């Protein structure tokens, strides 16, 4: 036995892979392929090839490449290789390593926020993801509430931009949309497990679920708030990542929820929550100046292939059926994301605008007779509300979590989730002019009376939380 152990130890010290044969007691050594940098070093040692300078440059470039990957993902174990596996599994490996917490983290967070004394709240730190566009519904609402706190309570908001090495790039966007926030501090947090650059504040907000993890570990605040704008476990298939998202609802933060459905969802996980009803910018989204005469029917399609919750596959399948029936009588417009028509089999069927300036979206919606927006989470999304406010007929899917706002045949048309069912509802809504007029009259009334006053909604939740 001692001899066998000695053979194993000696084999383990050699380079290459070893295999132990139980019958013969022989340890066989097989060579393994070396990393690219090691191979380059071996060739350089020979020193006889004219490509020596070229190899040196390659080796240095290789080292820089590896360094960039490690710095860009500081908390990831370098030995984890994900480029040969399913993208969803790769994402799960990344998040499983990057986003972690212990029972002690939960305890320390609760202790830090248990003392409610300390005078009035004067500062707030918001943990936010990298900003795609400050005018997008979720981001717009975050900055709107931060501006409201500054304007009505004198609370100065600063922003920790997670997984970003340059936060200042967003300042001009924020200042243009919300001038009161123009002097806010923008703090880059490339590693969400290193929060040393963030000074103490009175209040801490998390937004997208991944930002709840740094807020959990940041105990330099007296109050922690979850600014919840969707049920984000539904952004992923049931599995590791969706479970990590759901776990954040048990961190013990007080939640301010965008809609009553999200409030109920958060409370179902044992949390305390208040909610506001989303409102709209009536200067941009209104029914005035709609074109009265058009040569074609016009349908807006909220197409986002990279956002699973918007059911892009069913939407495009329905579009092909709609065009088969209506042909050139209908023009289909899409916006909300950048994608290639030909890759999804609808080349020539849709006019795609991609990302649009905020002010122009209202003009686009007013030019449409109807809008198709599919949503598979617990939030109705902003585009259907904006379409309704602009006088377009909203066609969306049956969703029990959105029954509080959408009533089939009253202020919208609801469809079952099959391509044929969607196509039938869209064709009905486009071709039945009397039905469309009746429903849009009611939906304009609903948006005007129930979704046009941000201040009253934000005042209500602020008084409940602070």
From TrEMBL:
Region annotation (Disordered) ranges: 1-54
InterPro entries from the UniProt entry: WsaF_C
Pfam family of the protein (one): WsaF_C
WsaF C-terminal domain ranges (all copies): 298-425
Bias (Basic residues): 1-10, 20-32
Domain of life: Bacteria
UniProt name for this protein: Glycosyltransferase
Organism the protein comes from: Paenibacillus arenilitoris
